[in-house]
Structures are given as structure tokens and as C-alpha cells.
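Still learning. Any example?
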Amino acid sequence: MIVLGISSYYHDSAAALVEDGTIVAAAQEERFTRKKHDAGFPANAVKWCFEGARVSASDIDYVAFYDKPFLKFERLLETYLAFSPRGFDSFRKAMPVWIGEKLFQKNLLLKELKAIDESLGTADKLLFSEHHFSHAASAFYPSPFEEAIVLTMDGVGEWATTSAGIGRGSELSIEKEIHFPHSLGLLYSAFTYYTGFKVNSGEYKVMGLAPYGEPKYAQKILDHLIDLKADGSFRLNLDYFDYCTGLTMTNARFDALFGGPVRKAEELLTQRHMDLAASIQAVTEAVVIRITRALAAETKIKKLCLAGGVALNCVANGILQRDGRFDEIWIQPAAGDAGGALGAALAACHHQKGMPRARFIGNDGMRGAYLGPAFAQSDIEGVLTAAGAKFTVLEEKDLLDATARAVADGKAVGWFQGRMEFGPRALGARSILGDPRSPVMQKMLNLKVKYRESFRPFAPSVLREDVAEWFELDADSPYMLMVAPVCKDRQRPMTEAERQLFGIDKLNVPRSDIPAVTHVDYSARIQTVHSDTNPRYHALISRFKAMTGCPVMVNTSFNVRGEPIVCTPEDAFRCFMGTEIEVLVVGNCYLRKEEQNPGLKRDYKDAFELD
């Protein structure tokens, strides 16, 4: 049985293909359209899934959509009725769009599917999964666990904002839910909005900013915004929010509570904003810990699966790991709405059609999240030649030697290999690499390559076999979704003068033997690299270790701020020529910036809308 999963019409549209319970292809639409968080129907991703899996549209048994549009329309309608006459103007403006896009979304889906192939657009093939069940399915079915608690947390689906269930074998059931408008994801997004970042894309910036501040407002949040119970259940005080009926996340009462108006985009960040970020991060961690402790105590189950946008909060995930209530934790790498496409397909296979779970190749069913397009060496050479690139084709040993040497020499290296990652993280297939030992690498990559805010941290890729010697973690973290401290013997103590620094002034203080990936609180967002899922990347870091003694590399996504991660060799070459990346490695092709035609350089940093 072959099932096509689709998520679309909100943000991060995607398609995924599951064959007899095995995940064979998945990709986000943004990678093809080059529009970040593209919400449109994922026609390009669907067509690529067919191509990547070598199936035709007529081979598809079912198409599964990741939520139930009519239930979502019901929630929107009931919310406005509950709050009326507040928000009537926005209700009046939104109603024509809702009727077209929500109420009749089934017809819209069938139309889009027919446009790809007539055989896809038949009503008897179309299945729907509830939003949080899609998240739960994406978390449990690819996990390595036979039995697990499954926790999903995000902004909102149809009604649910948080759900807890149990997976056993091929069975998955949702046992508890918290419903809209009470939402941990929306609470976090309210602070994303208030601190001047974009909702649904800037939450990770708030998480990255938090260590520069102190949680001075955490108690105020608990006293006024969220009523948090001992078991982690909660209710929000809606007097301070405007997301139910208005066009903003927060209101004037929220401004008054926290002592000022919403920060404007690109406005200077102050210590107050950093303290606000630290505060909402602390509250989020407290909620997650209470929920998971209560579930662990109630069920006695020792395995935990996570999905939903809140599961991308890798700082909270690291605290969960260290809390010790679970023997193992597995997090869906595409935890946001893109992963809903995959979850819908898996739910159709196992929950709706009763198929047994597939046997895994590797540690889990995600194949390292390398589920997107790959390109043959001959195609890469043809594309680069047509683009006017100057390159050398190297044998594998020479390629690894040259790349490891470039990183050791302090160069920024674009690394484009194999199948593209599914989810928001670059995991060594579409990555920019650097030397973690360099005290200037973080600042250089942020300002000269990524063109983004200087406070943003970078992640380390570390050989799985060496992770415990460098970080306070001895577990798999293949998807860069766990934060842990750098080992004490690798840390550099701060001087008294350095300890007196505040906020962003802390950025330039080296904190460890690998300062480029050590955040201001001595933590790091860790990716463990495994030889079975990404042998070439593992071999590269091994070569770097042989040269330097360090089994760690800086790994950041291959893009600039506001740009989706590169998908094709053309994308990679454009980004290479539009930034100060000094070396590009695409397949076996090795490119040096100084050898390229200067006429091919382009103004790139303003090519994309800032996120």
C-alpha cells in the first residue's frame, strides 16, 4: 500500500510518501519554490516524492491530509461567536476566505490533486487525520519504541493544542487533550511577537536569546498569564491576548504588564527583551516538565515520543533528558506542520488501514531524516558547468582531506551531499561547516555568511562515539533536538570582569575549547553523527578529528537569513557566490571562491524577505 501525505494551507507545507509502512520520501514545498515557510499546496513536493520513490500517481492507494478542515472551521466560527461582538470587523473580513479555504477545502484539495494527475483527485482516495493525531503518528510510528507515551504540543490544530496518548505496536490512542484557546505554543508565540520576531518562524530566536537574560518576569507570567496546575495542565488568562479575535497576539494590557510596547522588527534588542525571552523559556520548561512527570507517574511507561512545534524547543528537550523520568526520548525531526504530512500518511497506514509497523533500517524509521532530493555526480557537474563554475572533481579520500583542511584553516565551507534533510535542521547534507575551536567563527558566520543577528548560536556536529567526551550527554541526538552543557573539563572559567558583563556583551567571551558552538550558558545544541545514516559526513568529521584532535564541527543550515535551505546544486552555487563562503563541496566537486569568475558574484543578502 502506498500513501501520499500532505500538509498545506497554514505554514510549512510538505508532502511525504509511505510504502507499506516504510517512509520513502518527504520534502517541504519551500525548498522548491524558494519561499520560506511556503503555505501553498505542495505540488512540487508531491511531484518530487513520486520521482524520488520511482512511483507514478496511479500507484497511489490513498492521499492523507494532516488535519480536518471542517473541524478547524468550526473552531474559528465558535471562537468568534464566544467572543462577539469583539472582533466583528476581523470576522467580517475573514469569513469569505474561511468559506473558500476552510469549509470547502476538500474540494480545493481534489482540484489540486487532479491538476497533478487525474487519478489522484478522487474522493474515495482522500483521507483526513486530526491535526494532533498526525503529529502523534509522526512521533510514534517512526520511533524505535514498541510502547511509549506520545506528547504533542503546538499552537493549535482543530481544537487541541496539547495532546497526550499511548502507542503500543501499531496501536495509537489519544488519551488527554488541552483545547484552544489555552495553548503553550501560542503563549510562547505571544512573546515571540512581543519581542519583535515573526510568529511561526521566530520562536527559535527567542530560545536563542534566552540565555542572555534572567527570568525576571517568570513569576509575573505565572501570576497573570497562565494558571499552571501540578500535573502540567493549564489555562491562559485571555484578558492579555488578542489572538482569538484580533489581528495581533497581545494587547494593551499585556504591554502594561511588561512595561512597554511591542518591539519593532530590527529594533535594537535590550536587556529587557533578553529577560523576557529567558522568562517565557523558563515557564515553558516548567510546563513541559510538569506534564511529562505526571504522565510518567501515571502510566509507568519509560519511553517518550514528542512532536508538534513546541518539541522543536531543544533547550526544554535537554532538560527533559536530564530529568531522568524516561529511559529514552525520541523526537520527530520534522516536529512542526511539515511533519504533519508524514504523520497523516503513517496514520492512514497503521491507524486507519490496520497495517503492521515496518521494520527499520538504522535506529529509527526516519533514515536520518535524509528523505529529500539527491543528485547524480554527472548532473552536478553539468549544472556547475552551465553556471560558469570552476571546480575540481576529487576522489573521496582527497575530497575529505581537502574539506577537513579547509575547515581546520578557518574557512567557511558549503557542504552539499546526498539526500536533502526533511525538517527545519540541516544535518550534514545541506550544511555550512566551520571550525568550532575558532573564537571568531560564530560572529563571522552570522555577519558575513548568514547575514543574521549576531546573538544566534550555532550547533555542533559530533561523532556519536565521542559525544560523551565533549558534552554532558551520552545518548543519540541525530536530529539536533537536544541541548546539553559542554563538559566541565572543556569549559573555560570566566574572569570576574567577564562575569559582570550583561546581555549581548557576553557574546565575545570564549567559554570552552570549542567556543564557536558554546552558547553563553555553556550549552550546545548537539547533533550526533552516525556512520550508518550519513557515512560521508561521519568520515569528514573523523578526518577533521585526525588532523586536529577535535571530533566536532560547526554545522549550520546552507542558506542566508530568510532563505529556505538549499535544495539543488544551482541553489548551492548561488548561495556560495552571494555570500562569503570560501569553499563549496557539491558531490565530488570542490570549488574555491578565489577561482570563480568575479562577475558571477551577486548581491544575495537582500534577495529574501527577513524571517
